[in-house]
Write a structure and sequence with these properties.
By secondary structure, the chain is α/β, with parallel strands linked by helices. It contains 12 helices and 12 strands. The protein has a domain of 153 residues: NAD(P)-binding Rossmann-like Domain (Rossmann fold). It is globular, with a radius of gyration of 20 Å. Bound molecules: glutamic acid (GLU).
Length: 357
């Protein structure tokens, strides 16, 4: 689903999940338009989805599914048209299959058709961790504003997939205590802090965080209610609802997932004066480094990871400051301010382009 190409080629992830719907994909495509505008990369928004349960598919089945899907959308995608990337349950291998299938239709290697590729296929250094790293840069700025000592903060993370697990790793490296996490099967809590590197190994071996030694089991919903400083929803949409928002104890919520908060829950969090860093800001790091990957592919000139991270930090801090200034100007929430900045950019581009014919 392509939402906008006013500011440049469409950009967004492809999601494999049993409950994907057309409405969900359409909503995420719109979110991508605003996200790209907020971090000011020259893209519009798109998202793709396949209704399937990738956990039940063999590698061969996943490859055939991906290649057939790519063939169906080959006329719509391309480096100047629409550039897919990983999302829920898709990864660098998925992107490699898309790149190969698309390249077969063009007759030559076309790495810039997708981002989030393996490094030896034109992927960018730092892309895998970019979503989480971008969120960390935003959290650093947010903690300064709140007067919260980031290095000593406690965190709960809902979701332990592409985004949540990397987020846990980076926060742990920063010295924060990650005290609760959940995945699609189970949740775990340890008030003294979870050993994240050991948990990552455990998840790779067993497929879940369930029964990780030294932790108490809790439900995925209860992870949201854990007493902590920072809450990171990094799973699916509509997780923070009117039913659980009242129980949230965190001072800051960093939306790494797309649309994890329902509008009603959002109002409740505003009343509770929780600082909600909206998805289009908190998860803007992924598409920012996707943009860097695309630029590197087109130039065929690749950057060191330090260069990627330095540029990412610049983009994220700038976006955060723009949101803060807009929030002050209009006396509104961080979410409203982020949308004001993003929609203004798309509106200006639309007006300046004008209508043809
Ligand atoms: N799933 C990513 C996101 O939602 C994809 C963005 C991209 O890199 O194109 O931000």
């Amino acid at each position: 689903m392509q939402h906008s190409n006013v500011r440049g080629p469409c950009k967004g992830g492809i999601r494999y999940h049993p409950s994907v719907t057309f409405d969900e994909v359409a909503a995420m495509a719109a979110v991508m338009t605003w996200k790209c505008a907020l971090v000011d990369v020259p893209f519009g928004g798109a998202t793709g989805g396949i209704v399937c349960d990738p956990k039940k598919l063999s590698r061969g089945e996943l490859e055939r599914l991906t290649r057939r899907y790519t063939y169906e959308i080959a006329a719509l995608i391309g480096p100047d048209q629409d550039i897919p990337a990983p999302d829920v349950n898709t990864d660098a291998q998925t992107m490699a299959w898309i790149m190969d299938t698309y390249s077969m239709t063009t007759g030559h290697a076309t790495p810039a058709v997708v981002t989030g590729k393996p490094m030896y296929l034109g992927g960018s250094a730092g892309r895998y961790e970019a979503g989480a790293r971008g969120c960390l840069f935003v959290l650093r700025e947010a903690c300064k504003l709140k007067g919260l000592d980031l290095a000593n903060a406690t965190v709960a993370i809902q979701g332990f997939g592409n985004s949540g697990s990397v987020m846990a790793k980076l926060l742990w490296k920063e010295g924060l205590k990650v005290i609760a996490v959940s995945d699609s099967k189970a949740g775990i809590v340890n008030k003294d802090g979870i050993d994240i590197p050991a948990l990552l190994r455990f998840k790779t071996e067993t497929g879940s965080v369930e029964a990780f030694p030294g932790c108490t089991p809790i439900s995925s919903a209860d992870v949201l209610k854990t007493a902590c400083d920072i809450l990171v929803p990094a799973a699916m949409e509509n997780q923070i609802t009117i039913e659980n928002a009242g129980y949230i104890k965190a001072q800051i919520i960093a939306e790494v997932a797309t649309s994890p908060t329902t509008p009603e829950a959002d109002l409740m969090l505003i009343r509770k004066e929780v600082m909600v860093l909206p998805d289009i800001l908190a998860s803007g790091g992924g598409v920012t480094v996707s943009y860097f990957e695309w630029v590197q592919d087109l130039q065929q000139l690749f950057w060191e990871e330090e260069e990627v991270n330095r540029r990412l930090e610049h983009v994220m801090v700038k976006a955060f400051r723009e949101v803060c200034e807009t929030r002050k100007k209009y006396d509104c929430t961080y979410r409203a301010a982020a949308y004001i900045v993003a929609i203004d950019r798309v509106a200006k581009a639309t007006i300046e382009r004008g209508l043809w014919p």
